[in-house]
Amino acid sequence: MIRFRVVLILFTIVFGIVVLRLFYWQIVRADELKELGMSQYGKSIKIEPLRGEIKTSDGFPIVANKVSYFLYANPKEVEDVNALSYFLSQELEVDEASISAALTKELFWVPLGRGLKSEQKEAIEKMKFKGVGFEQEFQRYYPEASMAANLLGFVGRDEEGSTKGYFGVEGYYDRLLRGKGSSALQINDALGRPILARANSKESFGADGSSLVLNIDRSIQYIAERELKDGIERYGASGGMVGVLDPASGKVLAMASFPSFDPREYQIYSDNEYKNGFISNLYEPGSTFKPLVMSAAFNENILTPESKCPICSGSVSVGGYDLHTWNDEYFPNSTMLEVIQHSDNTGMVYTAQKLGLDRMIKYLEKFGIGEVTGIDLEGETAPAIKPKNGWYEVDLATTGFGQGISITPIELLTAFSSIANKGVMMQPQIVSRVIDSNGNEVDIKPKKLGYPIDSKTAKTMTDVLVNAVEKGEAKWVKIDGYKIAGKTGTASIPIEGKYDPNKTIASFIGFGPAENPKFVMLVILDRPTARIYGAETAAPIFFSIAQKLLNYFEIPPTN
Amino acid sequence: MKKPILVLVLLFLTIGTLIIVRSVVSSRITTSGLELSQVREEANVLRTQNALLREEIFSLSSLTQVSERAEKVGFVESKSVYAVSGAQPIARGE
Predict the structure, then answer these.
(1) Rg (Cα) of chain B, in Å, rounded?
(2) Chain A residues within an 8 Å CB radius of B85
(3) Separation between Cα atoms, residue B28 and residue A314, nearest integer Å
(4) Is A136 part of the contact surface with chain B (CB cutoff 8 Å)?
(5) B interface mutation test: which of A63, A69, A118, A554 has the most B CBs within 10 A?
(6) At what angle do helices A81-92 and A118-126 cross, to 10 degrees?
(7) What is the pLDDT along chain A (559 residues), one digit of tens a residue?
(8) Residue of A271, A52, A272, A48 whose CA lies nearest to A174
(9) Residues A234 and A202 sit within 8 Å (Cβ to Cβ)
(10) For residue B44, what are the domain limits?
């Protein structure tokens, strides 16, 4: 009996061990073994989706994809390391020693080069080197070179080695552009030849990225960039910006910023050059801000274009500071129409004081100052307006002529465009349409941001700005036969609590034709050296672009 | 005794036929796999060629290229634009 029991216990133990062992292989290490088994007849391959294209409003792909090749080698199979190293160093223009070092490593796979052109691939293939292989991939391609580079951003790689958009449109719409990657099982026959590839699971089905159609008009962008570049050189400025909007819809027709960068070689540039200054640079707008303050006073019926300025006969003392006009010329009893025409700071101090702090803050908020516009670009900034108790008497006065307040160019252009659009402020929009990989299109509708002033005020202010162009400092560059509304600006640059006496930011803001505006534009020159005033630097660039836009839009002169 | 032999013969014939059918089907699947692979390769080559041609078209039709070429062949920017407008009527006839 005892013998039977011993045998039974032994059998039970052995059986239990077998069951446990089976559990270990079948359940605990099942996934690992499954992968090991699969690797014997195939391999899982990661399929990177094709990144969507970015097109200008005429359908031209300003950012496309081009075929390139990734070169790798299996050092164990390479027969003549020296010959291969020498040839590749000549073909790829890289150091021979670094290729040679990679090829002598005790590895089965080493990367040798990325972004090879098809001609380079063919040249290497012709040599029939053993142990060398290629993998096809797609790279960003810029048919218009560095046009709108700050606006578009660039594509780099993330921590996992996948493509990722940075800055501008590439950064903002990265999720849409990049699509969804997938993986597939490549099954091979006994000789290692590929037979079939199948998706691993439901989740592994991917989709190529969506393409974007921009509101950016390629011709206008080209004109704006060319004129701005010429202007920067001519006036010895350290940089410059141009933004052109359609005031009725908020469509951004062009946006240029210099210095810029080459997106094909983004690695060699600094962060400052990637930045789109038009949406991220803070500056004191100076006189280009006056139309907003004057509009507020008109809208509140505190002042009219005919109202007289009683304090315009000399400099004004506010809170212990002496406030002057830009050229120390004074026009006693000038009207508000003339205050804008002469860009009279004392007249604007009077306007700001008549408006008062509460209404000033109310209108700044109505014009969207202190808030981001929500433009569809990565990197927009906007400092908040100071709280009411943080305002000194002099702050109210200087805000009247655009000093002591920091904004971005896009904030100013968006607010100003409401004057051109009957008092309606539209959100600036870069992208007009998204097209997914199946061809489905989604339109992005224009969005109203608010109604800072009424249409009557907008009309009055337009007339005041037309007068400023016709009779103001920039009249020497105005376009004959067209009514353009605009305002010059020469802003001082704050440095360590003071204003730099020699350096300025020169600008011009305006729209045309005044009676039915097709564009609203802001031109900014950073620290021009040849001449420092907006009327002498930014205004000529503005009108040069405006003339070309009027021709481009086929708008005939009205008189 | 004859019946079991007949059944066995039929059985072996069926097995034989099934083996042949299976071999034929398997070989066909294997061949179509290779064909599919070839077709895919061809499609890839065409896709690559298409991408290269697109690249060339974009490069040649870019404004930067066009303006450079235009300048080279002697085109100049027109400085004056003429607008043709209709004569104002003397009387509107209202």
Answers:
(1) 39
(2) 556
(3) 99
(4) yes
(5) A118
(6) 160
(7) 788 889 999 999 999 999 999 999 888 888 888 877 777 766 666 777 889 999 999 999 999 998 888 898 888 888 888 888 999 998 888 888 888 888 887 777 888 888 888 889 889 989 888 889 888 888 899 999 889 999 999 998 888 778 899 999 999 999 999 988 776 666 666 666 555 555 554 455 678 899 999 999 999 999 999 999 999 999 999 999 999 999 999 999 999 999 999 988 888 888 778 889 999 999 999 999 999 999 999 999 999 999 999 999 999 999 888 898 888 889 998 999 999 999 999 999 999 999 999 999 999 999 999 999 999 999 899 999 999 999 999 999 999 999 999 999 999 999 999 999 999 999 999 999 999 999 999 999 999 999 999 999 999 999 999 999 999 988 989 998 899 999 999 988 887 777 887 789 999 999 999 999 999 999 999 999 998 888 899 999 999 999 999 999 999 888 6
(8) A52
(9) no
(10) 38-67
Helix %, strand %, coil % of chain B (to 5): 75, 0, 25
Cα separation, A167 vs A163, in Å, equals 14
Residue B43 maps to a domain: yes
* B79 contacts in chain A (CB < 8 Å): none
Distance (Å) from the alpha carbon of A147 to chain B's nearest alpha carbon? 9
State the Cα–Cα distance between residues A258 and A261, nearest whole angstrom: 9
Residue B83 lies in a domain: no
Q: Is the complex ipTM more than 0.85?
A: no
- Cβ-defined contact of A195 to B59 (cutoff 8 Å): no
Within 8 A of B63 by CB-CB distance, chain A residues are: 144, 147, 218-219, 222
State whether residue B89 is helix, strand or coil.
coil
Q: Which of A64, A241, A536, A244 is nearest to B53 (CA)?
A: A64
CB A223 within 8 A of CB A548: yes
Residue in A closest to B60 by C-alpha: A143
Place of tokens 């205004």: A539
Contact A193 B34 (CB under 8 A): yes
Taking the domains of chain A in order of start, what are their residue ranges? 48-180+208-214, 218-262+284-552
- Searching chain B, which residue's CA lies closest to the CA of residue A118? B52
Among partner residues A118, A222, A556, which is closest to B63 by beta-carbon distance?
Answer: A222
Inter-chain contact A67–B51, Cβ cutoff 8 Å? Answer: yes
Question: What pTM value is reported for the model?
Answer: 0.83
B89 in a domain, yes or no? Answer: no
- Cis ω for the linkage preceding A259 (within 30 of 0): yes
Q: Which residues of B touch A195 (CB under 8 A)?
A: 30, 33-34, 37
CA angle A266, A255, B80 (to 5 degrees): 120
Q: Which of A143, A189, A194 sits opposite B59 (nearest CB)?
A: A143
Tokens of A32: 């690992």
Query: Total domain count for chain B?
Result: 1
CATH 3.40.710.10 for domain A218-262+284-552: yes
> In chain A, count of helices (H) and strands (E)?
18, 21
| CB atoms near residue A419 (< 10 Å) | 31
Q: For residue A198, give both structure tokens.
A: 């199948």
Beta carbons within 8 Å of A551's beta carbon, 6+ residues apart: B81
The answer to whether position B50 is within a domain reads yes
* Superfamily of domain A48-180+208-214 in the CATH hierarchy: Penicillin-binding protein 2a (Domain 2) (3.90.1310.10)
* C-alpha span between A352 and A332 (Å, rounded): 18
